[in-house]
Write a structure and sequence with these properties.
By secondary structure, this protein is of the alpha+beta class. Helix content is 41%, strand content 17%. It has helices at 12-23, 31-38, 54-65, 88-92, 100-119, 126-134, 151-159, 169-181, 202-208, 218-228, 235-239, 253-264, and strands at residues 29-30, 69-75, 78-83, 143-144, 185-190, 194-199, 215-217, 269-272, 280-284, 287-295. Strands 7, 8, 9 and 10 form a 4-stranded antiparallel sheet that branches. It has a 3-stranded antiparallel sheet with strand order 1-3-2. Strands 4-6-5 form a 3-stranded antiparallel sheet, covered by helices on one side. Strand 2 (69-75) and strand 3 (78-83) form a beta hairpin. The longest helix has 20 residues, at 100-119. It starts with 11 loop residues before the first helix and ends in a 6-residue tail after the last strand.
Length: 301
C-alpha cells in the first residue's frame, strides 16, 4: 500500500493519538465513537479535496497496513478498531514525552513492512522507500522545504524514467511531516530567505539504544541497528533503490552524522580499530574514522 500517493493526509502524530486512545480501550472502539472522541486532536477532514476521508481515516488505514491497529467487524455498516494485541502493553505504558516509543514503533513497522514486501517480490510502501533514499543523501547538502527548489529535480534524477515515491508538492509536504515526526530529519530556518530539511536520524537511533547490545563489534552493531530500523540502511531496502551514492556496505552519511552526535552527547562510544575484519568506516566531510566496537554506557543499556 502506498502512503504518500494513496493516503497523503495521514500523519505520525495522528496515528499516535489514535493508538494511545485505543490502548486505553482494549476491547476496541467503534469507528464513529473513535472519530468523535478524537475530533479535537485529529481533524476529520483535511484542508484539501482528496477523497481519502482526511487525516483520521488515512491514518487509520496506515495503522492497519502496519498491523499496529486492526479492524473488527461489528455489522455491515459498523466497524470497531483496537490496538493489535501483541502491542497493547507496549503502547499503553508509553508515557514518554511526545510518545517517542510509539513513534519508534511506527518507524520500525514501516521499515519491516518495506523489507518484507521486497523479499516477497512486491513493491514496498512509497514512504519506506523514500525515507531510505533520503537517508542515503548528504546531510551537508540539505533539501529545500520548497518542492520546486531542488527536491523535485532530486527525486526525478534519482528515479530517472521511473515514478519516484515522491512526485508532487503535496506528497513532499507529507513526506517532511513523516520524516520529522519519526526522528529522521530536522528543519533549519535561515531567516526569511530559506528553510531546509536535513537528514538526521539522531533521535530515531537514540530511542532504540536501550534495545541495542551494550558492547558489540561494529559491523554486528550496525546489522542489529538495521534489524530494528531498516530505513537506516538495511541492504534489502538500499538494493531496491534505483541509484544511490556509495555502496550498500557503507554507512550512510546521515547515520554517520547521528553516531558522532550521539558520541558527543555521551550516549555511546565509538572505539577505534585498525582491524578490518569487523571494523566499519564512518566517512564524513572532515575525514574517516574506522571503528571496531560500539559501546553504550551501562546507564542506557
Amino acid at each position: 500500500m502506498d502512503y504518500l500517493k494513496g493516503h497523503v493526509t495521514a500523519s505520525a502524530p495522528a496515528l499516535v493519538v489514535i493508538c494511545r486512545y485505543l490502548a486505553t480501550h482494549p476491547q476496541g472502539v467503534e469507528e464513529a465513537e473513535l472519530r468523535s472522541a478524537l475530533q479535537p486532536h485529529v481533524p476529520a477532514k483535511s484542508q484539501g479535496t482528496r477523497s481519502d476521508g482526511g487525516v483520521f481515516v488515512a491514518s487509520l488505514r496506515v495503522g492497519q497496513d502496519l498491523e499496529i491497529i486492526q479492524p473488527q467487524e461489528v455489522s455491515r455498516n459498523r466497524r470497531r478498531w483496537a490496538v493489535s494485541e501483541s502491542l497493547q502493553e507496549e503502547i499503553e505504558r508509553d508515557t514518554s514525552p511526545g510518545a517517542q516509543i510509539v513513534r519508534s514503533l511506527v518507524l520500525r513497522r514501516l521499515g519491516a513492512r518495506a523489507a518484507t514486501a521486497i523479499e516477497a517480490g512486491h513493491p514496498p510502501p512509497d514512504l519506506g522507500l523514500a525515507l531510505t533514499w533520503f537517508l542515503m543523501q548528504n546531510p551537508l547538502a540539505p533539501f529545500s522545504v520548497t518542492w520546486g527548489d531542488g527536491p523535485e529535480a532530486a527525486f526525478k534524477d534519482g528515479w530517472k524514467g521511473d515514478h519516484p515515491p515522491v512526485d508532487n508538492a503535496e506528497q513532499w509536504r507529507s513526506f517532511m511531516r513523516w520524516a520529522r515526526s519519526l526522528g529522521l530529519a530536522v528543519r533549519a530556518d535561515f531567516g526569511r530567505q530559506k528553510s531546509v530539511l536535513i537528514a538526521d536520524p539522531t533521535r530515531a537511533i537514540e530511542i532504540v539504544l536501550s534495545e541495542m547490545p551494550s558492547r558489540l563489534l561494529a559491523d554486528e552493531w550496525f546489522r542489529h541497528l538495521h534489524s530494528l530500523l531498516p530505513v537506516l540502511g538495511d541492504s534489502r531496502l538500499v538494493s531496491a533503490l534505483p541509484q544511490v551514492s556509495g555502496s550498500v556496505e557503507e554507512v550512510p552519511l546521515p547515520v554517520v552524522l547521528a553516531m558522532r552526535k550521539l558520541e558527543r552527547m555521551g550516549k555511546l562510544r565509538l572505539v577505534a580499530s585498525d582491524d578490518s575484519r569487523n571494523a566499519v568506516a564512518l566517512r564524513l566531510a572532515r575525514g574517516d574514522r574506522r571503528i571496531g566496537e560500539v559501546h553504550i554506557p551501562e546507564a542506557l543499556a
